[in-house]
Amino acid sequence: MADPFLLLLSFIPVGFLIVWARRPPVRPIPATMLATALAVVLAAGKFLFHGRHMAVADIVMQVLGALLGALLAWRLAHRQAQDPPDDHTRRESFQQASSTFLGRSGPVNG
Length: 110
Description:
The protein is mainly alpha-helical. It has helices at 4-20, 28-45, 56-82, 87-102. Helix 1 crosses helix 2 (28-45), helix 1 (4-20) runs parallel beside helix 3 and helix 2 packs antiparallel against helix 3 (56-82).
């Protein structure tokens, strides 16, 4: 059996991306059900390889990770929908992030 914490972490992005893949965002429960189907298919695929086995605990941890990711994405989507930034705020945020990434201080001209 793999480390349960790693299994949980591995499916957080799966749940997050399932919710964010569509507009309007997918609700957390259907996203978690889709991630559950993916976890079951991956576990069933282990039977194709000699010496591999599946464990129900692995699937449970992956499903919990997907649920956590889906809930995070759902909350973030609703927060953005309630307070959408205007174009000027987006531009300033992008300039600040790019100047931080590039190691520049002060405003970015362009």
